Amino acid sequence: MDIVNSLALSSPEILLTISGLILLMVCAFVGDKAARIVTILAVAALFGATAITADFLTNPAFELGGDAWAGIYRMDAFGSFSKILIYLAAIGCLIVTPKFFDATGEYRPEYPVLMLFGAVGMGLMVSAVDLMTLYMGLELTSLASYVLASFTRSDDRSAEAGLKYFVLGALASGILLYGMSLVYGFTGSTNYIGIRVALQDGLSTGALFGIVFVLAGMAFKIAAVPFHMWTPDVYEGAPTPVTAFFATAPKVAAIVIMMRIALDPFGGQSDAWQQIVIFAALASIVVGALGAISQDNIKRLLAYSSINNVGFILIGLAAATEAGAAAMLVYLTIYVAMSLGSFVVVMMMRDADGKQVEEISKLGGLSRSQPWLALCMAMMMLSLAGIPPLFGFWGKLVVFQAAVQADMVLLAALGIAASVIGAFYYLKIVKIMYFDEPAGVVAPSHDTARWAVLAVTALIVSPLGYLLIVPLGALASRAAAALFFII
User: Fold this and answer.
1) Rounded CA gap, 374 and 116, in Å?
2) How far apart, in whole angstroms, are the C-alpha atoms of residue 454 and residue 442?
């Protein structure tokens, strides 16, 4: 019965794994001409996994969750909420991808298969309650990501991005693994509950070093300062659909596992890591904002924007409370919509020859030639800046509110002050699109799939998004409560 229960609780990962293996065989026997059908089937598999996970999240029978596979995997509301975000982000990225590669003819069926296996790894990560399970999921995701970053063989920038991501990713994995070994050595357990119990009697110097190394390795994965150096180069060099994927699904998974690690096994020793998180939060906000100001490449600007937004999300983690965790999940949900919408606009920015337009200066006068595209981009930028009445304002508000409730008024005040810096480069893009002379470079886009995804994300970040406050807040609170259930 234990095996049956474990299979049922981990059914989303099992569904995606079986789907990925079947589609991999289709790739091998049918070849590149199966790329479109494999993409459609991969999207269907992700929708299936989303439906199963949504049932786990909303069904009262699963309210308390459950442990599987001898306690190394946990299905709870926290993991289910995170998986739904990951799967929906992957679906959005897959829908807009095929058209991007039409110009080069380099789209191959391996692409959606890699996305599926990456989703499996991310699912394992967010449901892991053992360091070994976490590491296996992390490496499965990383291996798929390295290949995706260098997917465009004809582009030297893509190969460079893949190599940089691989080298620095391997370094971060080594740091993380060393931290895990220290934690195991000084607590005698790799299970989260065992680690928490061992640390209740006090924190030794060795265990403290282990916590620092684990958090440092995770900081690389979420692109937090000072481990952010890979982000602008990889975001610029990787194919734009891959960059959109990196900025959404893996980002959610990395932040979520950092939350689970900090608040579950290390939750009893929050005083030991809160100062580290506070520094990373403020440094990420400032460095991300200052780094973006001088950028002329839209993908590099969005890379620094992601660093900036990670800083705001970490303010919720610094609070180390249930309200802070819920605020992080709300912010992550809104951030996925904003980031995906922004990169969809970038994908639609092509000249008359079909070449990607990445220079911000070439967006001049876009509002006059393509008013709807310019409007959507302006909404994404203003929402990322946290300017009301767009929904991005709500994400920042709940995070700052959680910090104030945790008596971190100074941290909230510094975050609000630093957010003003970030508003500058977002407003600069809006100014170029609406007030500069027309550059006449970006050609109209008629791709229905991209417009559909862009329309959905634009509706979410618009003032209509505030209609989601009650259901989104309720689900986020339920997920956060599950994370603190064993505490």
Assistant:
1) 32
2) 17
Judge if the upstream peptide bond of residue 250 is cis by omega within 30 degrees of 0. no
Which structural domain range is residue 400 located in?
Answer: 3-485
For residues 81 and 126, the answer to whether their CB atoms sit within 8 Å is: no
| β-bridge partners, 443 | 350
- How many structural domains does the chain have? 1
In terms of DSSP H, where are the helices of 320-408? 322-348, 366-369, 371-384, 392-405
Contact 99, 449 (CB under 8 A): yes
Q: Which phi and psi angles does 483 have, rounded to 5°? A: -65, -35
What are the b/e assignments for 432-441, b being 16+ CB within 10 Å? Answer: bbbeeeebeb
Q: Is 34 helix (H, G, I), strand (E, B) or coil?
A: helix
Ramachandran angles phi, psi of 224, nearest 5°: -95, 145
Provide block-wise average pLDDT over 10 residues at a time, the chain (487 residues). Answer: 82 94 90 87 95 90 80 90 95 90 79 93 92 91 90 81 87 91 91 89 85 90 86 88 91 92 85 89 91 88 92 92 93 94 90 81 86 91 90 93 92 88 86 84 82 94 93 92 73
DSSP annotation string for 157-222: HHHHHHHHHHHHHHHHHHHHHHHHHHHHHHHS--BHHHHHHHHTT---HHHHHHHHHHHHHHHHHT
Sign of the dihedral through C-alpha 348, 349, 351, 352: positive
Q: What does pTM read for this prediction?
A: 0.94
pLDDT of residue 487: 45
154: tokens are 């004809």
